[in-house]
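DM from R.C. (forwarded with permission)

"hey, sorry to bug you on a friday — could you get me a structure for this? deadline for the figure draft is monday and I only need the backbone to look sensible"
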Amino acid sequence: MKPPHILLIEDERSSRSICLNALLRAEYQATVALTAREGLRLLRSTHFDLVLLDLNLPDADGLSLASTLHGSHPELPIIMMTVRTAAEQRAAGLEAGAVDYLSKPFHQTELIHRVRRALAAGPPTPATQITFGPWLLEVEQRSLHHAEGFELELTLGEARLIEFLLRARGRPVNRDQLAEAVARSREGNPKSVDVLVSRLRRKLEDKTRGLRHIVAVPGLGYRIEVGE
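My reply, with the result:
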């Protein structure tokens, strides 16, 4: 029986060494990615049983990446690692799709305990409904319901894109991550992200008197307004 395969996405050398040594001593198989882009590439070609994800990556925000991974691989448990200790940061990590949260510095025994616990718990159960402002997204039905009673039907690509923007909870998500998030639909490629955003905007704005929910962030990508 093969040991569980762990993807470690961590660019900081000392932390990467601590994690890798602990995983190998515990007889896990481990693969390392130094960037979000490399991690996404590995996930497209290799099966992993768990992801250890640092929040402070050089090419992406870890919370947005967690949202992307949670959407494209909902069965994959994610443990976040960061020096951030504020309670709201922990909550944001869990809302983005992580099943656990490790504050640096941590001991190797704590890391292995958290990994074993996450693997034993089995695949996380993604939320099937997400609210933002007056809207309710039914993930499985691919539909948006407004508080005033009307409903919008979405294509698979539109539903996956808005789901991942919502899981980022207002944080910007870049086009490559959005393309990865919708990769399982026929609309999933970087060039089509702008088209999907445009279609979603039209659908939302037609029903909300021009109110723009999805906004462009220059040099970063898109984010969604999640307030009232």
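R.C.: lifesaver. Residues 5-121 form a domain with the Rossmann fold fold (CATH 3.40.50.2300).
me: no worries. The chain has eight helices and eleven strands.
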